[in-house]
Amino acid sequence: MKTGTKKKGIIWKRARKSHKGKQDPVVRKIKQADLDMLELAAAAGEIDLKYLDESGFCSWSEPGYTYYQRGEQKKIEQTLRRGRRLSIIGFFQPLISFVYGLVIGGVDRKSYIQMMEKEAEESSALGRIRVIVQDNGPIHRCLEVQQLWSKWESQGLYIFFLPKYCSEMNPIELEWQHIKKNELAGKMFEDELELAYAVIHGIEVRAETGNHTAQRVKFNSNPGT
């Protein structure tokens, strides 16, 4: 980057996707005010506040930017097979913990319910209110899950739904970005197991950087994951 550009306040930074054009500004404002109150309560130690989301990783990661000598071009050889998608579901509590589970394919309602049951049991054992911030994904609102809401609330676990198209309100999104763009960018993996190890390592690096613990939960249906 040229020195003159730096002096003008311009920095090299990746652009983020935005859905602001689809957002309802009134609903977003109301929800943001409610979330601000929850964050204040969490900062005061009155509740536990966690941010939930799912993401996915592939064996062929996107190439990243890098430095090289003029006239040279770095290349990344692709593996013979693309491999299956590795999905992750995570519960992020800034400066405290990151609890996650990995699964081949997509995260289904059974995996989601297992993780939520664990959160509800912990909430009940601690005798503390725990609020999970999440989006309106299909598995978060399916009938089987709705039938468990009253049970979870009796255990002290509550759900706060973000408004539609407002993923930027969920800080766990930044964790996914850092793992993909900093830890996995430009890498190719031979199989799903190698990819899983790389994701686990990336999460551990993020945990050390973010000053929080990292804990992996193994799903009952996929004990080898």
**Quaternary structure classification:** single chain
Task: Estimate the strand proportion.
Answer: 15-25%
Structural class: alpha/beta
* Secondary structure tally: strands: 6
Instruction: Tell me roughly what share of residues is in helical segments.
Output: 25-40%
SS summary, helix count: 8
Overall 3D form: globular
- The radius of gyration over CA amounts to 20 Å
Q: End-to-end distance, in Å? A: 43 Å
How does this model look, in words?
Strand 2 (86-93) and strand 3 (97-104) form a beta hairpin. The chain has eight helices and six strands; from the N terminus they run H-H-E-E-E-H-E-H-H-H-E-H-H-E. It is of the alpha/beta class. A six-stranded mixed β-sheet has the order 5-4-1-2-3-6, with helices on both faces.
How is the topology of this model organized?
Blueprint: H1 3-7, H2 25-43, E1 48-57, E2 86-93, E3 97-104, H3 109-126, E4 130-134, H4 138-141, H5 143-146, H6 149-154, E5 157-161, H7 172-183, H8 192-210, E6 213-216
Helix pairs in contact: 7-8
Key structural traits:
6 strands; alpha/beta; 39% helix; 8 helices; 225 residues
Structure described in brief:
It is built from 8 helices and 6 strands. With 225 residues, the chain is α/β, with parallel strands linked by helices. Helix 7 (172-183) packs across helix 8 (192-210).
